Amino acid sequence: MKVLIVGGAGYIGSHMVNNLHLNNTDVVTLDNLSGGFREAVLFGEFVEGDIQNRSMLDTLLKKHKFDAVMHFASFIQVGESVKLPSKYYKNNFTNTQILLDAMVDHGIKKFIFSSTAAIFGEPEYVPIDELHPKKPINPYGKTKFMVEQLLEDYDHAYGMKSVCLRYFNAAGADEQGRIGERHEPETHLIPLVLQAASKRRDAITVFGKDYDTNDGTCIRDYIHIDDLCDAHALALTYLMDGGSSTAFNLGNGEGYSIREVINAAEKVSGHTITIIEGDRRDGDPAKLIADSRKIIKELGWEPRYADLETIVRHAWQWELKYPWK
Questions:
Q1: Interval 55-80 mean pLDDT
Q2: What is the mean pLDDT of the chain?
């Protein structure tokens, strides 16, 4: 089996390349390196290019005869999507459609899409299952939901089968410390907290301390990057075995508060973390927790690294050897 990983030089994509290679799948990575890093791709052929380039896609898809495509090439910063919606609609939606059209023309009918919990908007209940109303409140979430709707139509019209995996908070790093989370700028909580622990950052700001939670700070569902990749691998097998198009929510099903993340980081690192208390941010719900029972039941997925300290410890190992040190 041969799989194209679009956005395979990014955080999730590079771990997916690892996962598939170690499970004897032939992998080719396509990435324009706008947010990824060439050195993060440890296995398989690497192609530098952009999915908006249709002629390049035609050449690549003709050469390799891929069985499936995995897509990790979206822009992901919610705040930036509000300020620069054109950037997000073009890359996350329009360019994805260019890729799908190329797949249709080359007879590739298996697609796995990196979606997001942001398609749900403000939660009406938690934990959030697949039937929760989809009311995205920012361009990032809207573009992801638009692709999900596009995939429904491409299934009906062209027979393209897809699995959409809606993440909550991907976190952690490769257990062996070969690769990890790397964004410039970094916006995710666990790496920011660990940067404060390693003193690459002076402090961590906690936005709001009066939420209706156990300690007043927001609660989020963190899923280890390797568990997330395991879910993708199961989704790939599901499609290759003739599975129908579907979507799964993906998280641990258990939430941790910001204070709990900071406490875990202090315990794992052995360092005190300086905290700055800030005001609440607009659009930050008190709790976001996934209901992952569907993927557990239908695909047999089971997290291997469900506890917070393990997630933080693997991320800390990466922080200690990060390339910019």
A1: 96
A2: 94
Q: Domain ranges in the chain?
A: 2-170+222-250, 174-221+253-320
What's the CA dihedral at 219, 224, 230, 233 to 10 degrees?
80
Q: Are 2-170+222-250 and 174-221+253-320 equal in CATH topology?
A: no
- Apex 218 CA angle, 217 and 221, nearest 5: 135
Element (H, E) at 69: strand 68-71
Instruction: Return the number of other C-beta atoms located less than 10 Å from residue 238's C-beta.
Output: 21
| pLDDT tens readout for residues 124-161 | 999 999 999 999 989 999 999 999 999 999 999 999 99
Residues 239/164, Cβ–Cβ less than 8 Å:
no
* Of 178, 176, 202, 204, nearest in space to 190 by CA: 204
Strand partners, 276: 205
CATH superfamily of 2-170+222-250: NAD(P)-binding Rossmann-like Domain (3.40.50.720)
Percent of the chain with pLDDT over 70: 99
Q: How many CA atoms lie within 13 A of 182 on its CB side?
A: 28
Residue 323 has pLDDT above 80, yes or no: no
More confident residue, 324 or 54: 54
Question: Strands 219-224, 255-257: parallel, antiparallel or unpaired by DSSP?
Answer: antiparallel
140 catalytically annotated: yes
Indicate whether 20 pLDDT > 50. yes
Higher pLDDT among residues 268 and 79, named by residue: 268
**Catalytic residue (choose from 140, 154, 167, 305):** 140
Q: pLDDT tens-digit profile of 235-270?
A: 999 999 999 999 999 998 889 999 999 999 999 999
Please compute the mean of the pLDDT values over residues 210-216 and round it to a whole number.
Answer: 91
The CATH label, of 3.90.870.10, 3.90.25.10, 3.40.50.300, 3.20.20.10, for the domain at 174-221+253-320 is: 3.90.25.10
Cβ neighbours for 262, distance < 8 A, ≥ 6 positions apart: 193, 204, 206, 273, 275
